[in-house]
Design goal:
7 strands; alpha/beta; 240 residues; 7-stranded parallel beta sheet; globular; 10 helices; single chain
């Protein structure tokens, strides 16, 4: 199974960081990533982690979500929010099955959790390939951050422990989030240059194009080919 990293965006309470670390370790996960935490390191994180202090101590901190996701081949946002432009959505059990079947041990998959009070912004959701939802009561569906991490981690552990390992036989490594980000920036630049995309009146074009390519696991060679096409378009435009 792939390497799963849990990403917490701007957690406000250090106790939730420790609680998330404990939830992860009980389910065999060890890679915790924080984006601009309000208080970290902090004794409360250590105390709440209990026997998972090693997960807390190895936590990596980034200033931006973009940087935190850079090495990932799949980025999944945990959110119950419905979106104006629908994105691929799975519940946590379906997500665990998908990850086990489609990704190999050399792949990094990121599961992103938002702020305790407001979740993830639309821009942060747009950085992810898909959305993961945790089924809950319609009367009261609010989960504590550490509880949400526990549910997703449990589903991943359950699938990993019950199923035989699957290795992806694809002939090229999958493109990382960073490589796809560079492709999207290149695509937007070319579309602007040929007057297809107007930054002053975008009409959701780039969001929909991101969604289109996010539904396909592009490998590194495919991204290079697409960028080569864009480069040739640029050269042809400059000649004319």
């Amino acid at each position: 199974m792939c390497e799963v990293q849990i990403v917490l965006v701007e957690p406000s309470h250090p106790g939730n960081i420790g609680g998330a670390a404990r939830a992860m370790k009980t389910m065999g996960l060890s890679k915790l990533v924080l984006v601009k935490p309000k208080r970290f390191p902090d004794p409360q994180a250590d105390w709440r982690a209990a026997g998972a202090l090693d997960v807390v101590e190895s936590t990596v901190v980034f200033n931006t979500l973009e940087a935190a996701l850079a090495p990932s081949v799949l980025t999944a946002a945990t959110s119950a929010r419905s979106r104006h432009i629908p994105w691929p959505v799975m519940n946590s059990a379906e997500f665990a099955e998908h990850v086990h079947k489609e990704y190999s041990s050399t792949d990094i998959v990121s599961v992103v959790f938002g702020r305790e009070d407001s979740g993830l912004t639309n821009d942060e959701l747009n950085l992810c390939n898909m959305q993961v939802q945790i089924p809950s009561s319609s009367n009261y569906g609010s989960l504590n951050l550490a509880m949400a991490v526990q549910v997703v981690a449990y589903d991943l552990f359950r699938v990993r422990s019950q199923a035989s390992p699957t290795e992806n036989a694809w002939d090229r490594p999958l493109a990382t989030h960073q490589e796809l980000g560079s492709f999207f920036a290149h695509l937007e630049s070319v579309l602007t240059e040929i007057d297809f995309y107007d930054p002053e009146n975008p009409r959701e074009a780039m969001t929909r194009l991101r969604r289109l390519f996010s539904r396909t696991d592009l490998d590194q060679t495919e991204v290079q080919i697409l960028r080569g096409i864009l480069s040739h378009i640029e050269k042809a435009t400059h000649k004319n």
